[in-house]
Amino acid sequence: MDGSDVKKAGKCPVMHGGMTQTGGSVTSWWPNALNLDILHQQDSKTNPLGKDFNYREELKKLDVEALKNDLRALMTDSQDWWPADWGSYVGTMARMTWHAAGTYRISDGRGGAGTGNQRFAPLNSWPDNANTDKPRRLLWPIKKKYGNRVSWADLIALAGTIAYEVAGLKTFGFAFGREDIWHPEKDIYWGEEKEWLAPSDNRYGDVADAKTLANPLAAVQMGLIYVNPEGVNGKPDPLKTAAMMRETFARMAMNDEETVALTAGGHTIGKAHGNGDAGNLSPAPEGGSLEDQGLGWMNRKGRGIGRDQVVSGIEGAWTTQPTRWDNGFFEMLFRHDWELRKSPAGAWQYEPVSIADADKPADVEDAAIRHNPMMTDADMALKVDPAYRAISERFLNDFDAFSDAFARAWFKLTHRDLGPKSRYFGPDVPAEELIWQDPVPAGRVGYDVGAVKAKIAESGLSTADLVSTAWDSARTFRGSDKRGGSNGARIRLAPQKDWAGNEPARLAKVLTVLEPIAAATGASVADVIVLAGNVGVEQAAKAAGFDVTVPFVPGRGDATAAQTDADSFAPLEPLADGFRNWQKEAYAVTGEEMLLDRAQLLGLTAAEMTVLLGGMRVLGTNHGGTKHGVFTDRVGALTSDFFANLTDMRYSWVPTANGLYEIRDRKTGAVKWTATRVDLVFGSNSVLRAYAEVYAQDDNARKFVDDFVAAWAKVMNADRADAA
Ligand code: HEM
Fold first, then answer.
1. Catalytic residue among 16, 40, 99, 267
2. Is the per-residue pLDDT at 4 higher than 50?
3. pLDDT over 60 (residue 686)
4. Would residue 355 count as lying in a domain?
5. Which of 219-228, 263-272, 663-672 has the lowest mean pLDDT?
6. Percent of the chain with pLDDT over 70
7. pTM to 2 decimals?
8. Is 595 in the same domain as 545?
9. Best of 92, 95, 273 to mutate for ligand 1, by most ligand atoms within 8 A of CB?
């Protein structure tokens, strides 16, 4: 059969019975059904390296110096299939790394360079990521050579760092430790637009007010990593662009100084590409044909390489020596007046009103030819916005300050979602402690765990108090950027101690009991809080007739207020917690969607989420002590009553006026219990119901307790890279 027969054969169900296309899904008939894919992505079966693969162990075998030397050599090893601009790949490598890291947003910790997600859609094919496939392909021989000892995620982050080093920057350091994912991330919400580069208006309440950008987004348009280089909605106006940059970079956790340093430092090397017609380019990798082999944006009609590349459509370099780390960006920006012009591809850009030939950058292929430099609207913002300008002028006059600010900001950019320092690996890890790393001092391990547990058990605190406090301390963990969690006991510090979700008055009462236990035994408060939860779970299991010991790993430390950047903890505040049947206020999204979001950030599978929630209900851990979903007459015993009663056809489920539900006895009509949406979704969603049935089964009472304990311990230890 030749290729032309494919269509005909595709009509035949025998030939093609599997559902293999991305466009359709078996559940797309019911678009409002809860989609559990973001939890199913936690399943490790798609990882070809197997469940015993340990990246940290592999890293120990990595010859870091040899890898760095290979990368240094790669920077100037121009390949005929994709010739390097001026014989150097530093620009394209740095942009690839920046685009990998620059998707990070502090609100949910998602995005960023931590997973190697740039290999997959949508990021591998975003309009703004045009040609980032080329540096990745250039890196492939190195990835192939070092194999499992270096992940794609680490290699992508390192390549840009080495690019800056080769250009001449004294970098701030580098840490390995990013583990690869093996399929597109399903959890990241990039915006609701259905069209690439749709106008910004869709995602701003008022496009004139940058702060109205919809949460948790950071980019101004679908398919961009940050702001539109030609201006808001493509209309040049550097002041307006500055406002959007400020908001977008703040959402990436960058302040004004970091924003100026990063943008100027970014554009100190490399160039923009717009010398041709973007209409001649082949599709982005994900939409390409088989023979494209995942390489996108190739010019099939013309030359399309070297000086004829088209990426953003903007054309030209920013500095006279675009392969060198120097102060050329600010010198160029401030020593010339700039006027708006159009690039050969028709994009808006600024070019100098007049410039000496010697100050012009050379052609990428022929050093004898000189071209005008250019600035984007975002570059001009660094000169026009008063706050940015003050920083830019300081950097213009103090190259060392600029270099240091850039090196630090670049390190932060590329390490923001790697998590605490205990996850860092390699010889170039900087010794300096940085506040954005959420530092936690090492805790003690040699104390008598049994004695601590005995004191907790005698303390008079209820099971609900013990379990709720431990849960609240651990639930802030986000697998997305590895921030939060119980380590550090930041629950006793501002801002966390005052969060509504933590029930401040109850929390203060519990801490008054637990802190003296820590002081008396030598355990950290963080460890005592977790042990308190474990004691509560063990007591509850015993009340249900099961003897269990919850696994415990000592060694958590207690952070101080000085080690805590209170502002940067604000995004970790839970606005809802389905596990404790609570939400701060009414939101546009449903409670069950917020439950899924939190479960995903905690790294839970759908089954783990199910068993945890059902268990916590019967332990009476609801926020404020509400009774919704407490489907048991034995509160405080770790029974599977929640599931047994939820699936029992003796009851009917009736909505009430206030968004709640009553569970009524079908025969008598008597109201037996009340529930929220978050409770009832475990009976209404077919997949969650399947899990609920497993735990309701008569033969699974023990399994329920064991699975609950395992999921509980997983959450308590989710942030313990230090103990791995
Ligand atoms: C407001 C922020 C920014 C905007 C609007 C922006 C825009 C652009 C545009 C339009 C290009 C040209 C792409 C092409 O046509 O090939 C470019 C290239 C580049 N950008 Fe940025 N950028 C920004 C921030 C940054 C940052 C923070 C970095 C790194 C820290 C960076 C690093 C680079 C590099 C190295 C290149 C050159 C790529 C090459 O030589 O192929 N940019 N940027």
1. 99
2. no
3. yes
4. yes
5. 219-228
6. 97
7. 0.96
8. no
9. 95
- Look at residue 496 in the predicted model and tell me its pLDDT: 98
What is the Å distance from ligand 1's center to 297 Cα? 18
DSSP code string of 650-679:
TEEEEE-TTS-EEEEETTT--EEEEE-HHH
The predicted pLDDT at position 44 comes to 81
For residue 540 the two structure tokens come to: 């509850």
SS3 370: strand
Cross-strand pairs, 483: 478
ω before 122 within 30° of 0 (cis)? yes
Yes or no: say if 416 and 104 are a contact pair by the CB < 8 Å rule: yes
Query: Is 99 labeled as catalytic in the residue annotation?
Result: yes
Lowest average pLDDT, out of 37-46, 322-331, 545-554, goes to 37-46
Give the CATH number, domain containing residue 256: 1.10.420.10
Pocket test for ligand 1, best of 86, 88, 89, 98 (most atoms within 8 A of CB): 98
Query: Are 244 and 313 in the same domain?
Result: yes
Per-residue b or e along 674-687, where b marks 16 or more CB atoms closer than 10 Å to that residue's CB: bbbbbbbbbbebeb
Distance 482 CA to ligand 1 centre (A): 27
669 in any annotated domain: yes
- Distance, in Å, from the CA atom of 94 to the CA atom of 165, rounded to the nearest integer, reads 11
Residue nearest to atom 5 of ligand 1 (CA): 229
The sign of the dihedral angle between the CA atoms of 269, 275, 278, 280 is negative
Same domain, yes or no: 259 and 392? yes
The tokens for 573 are: 């505040």
Same domain, 258 and 281: yes
> Structural domain of residue 591, as residue ranges?
576-709
